Amino acid sequence: MELEDELGDILGKARDGKRWTQADLAKSAGLSVGDIARIENYEWTPEEKVIFRIADVLDLHGPSLSAIAAGKWLPEKETPDPGPFNIICINVLMGLYPVKCYLLICRETRATAVVDTGGNPEAIIKKARDLGVKPEKILLTHTHPDHAGGLGQLTREFGCPTWVDKIEPRPSGSRDLRMIDDDDTITLGKLNIEPVATRGHTPGGISYKINESVFSGDAIFAGSIGRANASWFGLFESVTQNLLTLPDKTRLYPGHGPATTVGEEKQHNPFFCGKVFQ
Question: For 176-240, what is the HEC assignment?
Fold first, then answer.
């Protein structure tokens, strides 16, 4: 189990939040541009006092950032949600890049949904056959190719509709695309799934909450956040207002890296540790 983001990734994303170049960060932290480039290229892990200095100017939590840089923190392995469903994580590759997709299965009815398709739909099809289920819904957290690239093949295989946020760019491959509006609830067998707006990584990024679990796509990772392709402020606000205000025990199932919890991220994520959420 490895974190999605290393020290260099976190610095790059924090710089984006300030709209800083590497030169801006170097000047503020008293380092050279070459030093910052080496950190962000995974070529150098500086000593702790330097990490704390960088964290301070980037508004990151120093001890959390240092722990990640030293490889001393990973979220605790998640425990199964007590709700009447199973969550099956499927690790797939898009090229060499690992992506996580999920099957959500209602235990009573065996109704099944695919959460994100990845770029390797064959793995999802095989797992569904092995489990003896036929997905009846596809739920997309966003439409980047590594999360929606297998949509056409899955649609042909299962003949099911696809749900996506109303303002997210439309994916290709679905014959029956359903738009998610505010306050919608998605039914799966005896289960009710609540969409949670997590915009910022993409214009219409969305997470899916069921009982004490959230499929969070690329909004938040264990120890980091997603790349803010649409809006850094929007992504930060989505995470702090819509995800980290949930109970600490809430499980977060991201599109990359290990599962985590709201409580873990409030205590160990450099972007959020020490901040107040209401």
Answer: CEEEECCCCCEEECCEEEEEEECCCCCCCCEEEEECCEEEEECCEECCEECCCCCCHHHHHHHHH
Residue 257, pLDDT > 90, answer yes
Banded pLDDT at 166 (limits 50, 70, 90): very high
Query: If residue 49 lies in a helix (H) or strand (E), which one and from where to where?
Result: helix 48-57
Going from the N-terminus, what domains does the chain have, and what CATH number goes with each? 7-69 (1.10.260.40), 85-268 (3.60.15.10)
33-40 vs 7-18: helix axis angle to the nearest 10?
120
> Burial of 95 by CB count in 10 Å (0-12 exposed, 13-18 middle, 19+ buried)?
exposed
pLDDT 10s digits, 116-135: 998 889 999 999 999 999 99
**Six token digits for residue 230:** 């649409």
Q: Which residue has the tokens 């946020």?
A: 165
